[in-house]
Amino acid sequence: MSVATCQVCDQPVETGYALCPACELDFALLLLQFVPWMHALEASLDATLHPGGHQPVRIITPVAPTPLRLDVLDHLDLLASIAQGLWRRLEGVNPLKWQRDLCPDVIGCLTDAAMHPDLAKIPDIGMYVSQFQRLKPKTLAIIDPPDRATPIGQCLQCGLTITATRDAETVTCPVCGREQTASAVRLDLLECSIRSGKAFTAGECARLLRGAGYSVSGSTIRSWKHRGLLQSDGKDERDQPVYRLRDVAALLRDTPSD
Ligand SMILES: [Zn+2]
Ligand SMILES: [Zn+2]
């Protein structure tokens, strides 16, 4: 008789087990990771919500949006069927009460399975492990898109804060509907910040300037201070030195970019 091995890492395991203790723990933790993701997925179903960001912004689309994102719906269905399949595999089906589906919702299935004493003993557990491992990147791609929208400035018409992804060229204000180029919004923010005489940390100055096309880093700005080219304008509440954007922008014109 061959020695039983872990279906994930091939280490020898005790008879009757299909996962070693380390892989069992990894799998249980993976299942539990899906619990908060389920809420995020359900929130992502609404096609009018802008994905990403902590405060989703409703966007107005030129055509009526599909009320539900079908790709998210399909993904939730797949997740539910695999989680329920695993739960039924662990709990078994009571032949006397087979009509009653005692299977809880997906979150219930995930938490029951993660804590189930037989989790490492199901003969085909390796298949479930690889299914959940494959569901993970797809789930994260939905709830945490790599290119997330960040505030870039104020609407040139109504003053609402506009968010855009890094590569967006034009943005449409969700309130007044005005279409404007992202670079005009960024430039306007920069000009307002310069005119207001407001002070920012070196990192914030660099971000504002880069948004408008200048290439400058926070460390360059800090080096200007060390070289005596730039004076800080006090400190912020976290005790970081702040600089008037006007002063930084003035140096930018005289200093070759790095
Ligand atoms: Zn293992
Ligand atoms: Zn507007």
Q: Gyration radius, to the nearest Å? A: 27 Å
Q: Compute the separation of the termini in Å.
A: 68 Å
Give, in order, the helices and strands.
HHHHEEEEHEHHEH
Overall pLDDT: 85
User: Which small molecules are bound?
Assistant: zinc ion
Helix content: 40-55%
The coarse silhouette is elongated
Main sheet record:
2 strands, antiparallel
Number of helices: 8
- Order of the strands making up the biggest sheet: 1-2
Please state the structural category. Answer: mainly alpha
> How many domains in all?
2
Strand percentage, roughly? 5-15%
Per DSSP E runs of 2 or more residues, the count of β-strands stands at 6
List unreliable stretches of 5+ residues: none
Overall description:
It contains 8 helices and 6 strands, in the order H-H-H-H-E-E-E-E-H-E-H-H-E-H. By secondary structure, the protein is mainly alpha-helical. The protein has 2 domains: 123 residues, no CATH class; 105 residues, no CATH class. It binds zinc ion (2 copies). One zinc ion (ZN) binds next to loops.
The gist of it:
By secondary structure, this protein is mainly alpha-helical.
Search tags:
258 residues; two-stranded antiparallel sheet; 8 helices; 8% strand
Write the layout of secondary structure elements.
Layout: H1 21-44, H2 70-91, H3 106-114, H4 125-143, E1 150-154, E2 161-164, E3 170-172, E4 179-181, H5 182-196, E5 199-201, H6 202-211, H7 218-226, E6 242-244, H8 245-254
Antiparallel strand pairs: 1-2, 3-4, 5-6
Helix pairs in contact: 1-3, 1-4, 2-3, 2-4, 5-8, 6-7
The protein binds zinc ion (2 copies).
One zinc ion (ZN) binds at residues 6, 8-9, 11, 19-20, 22-23.
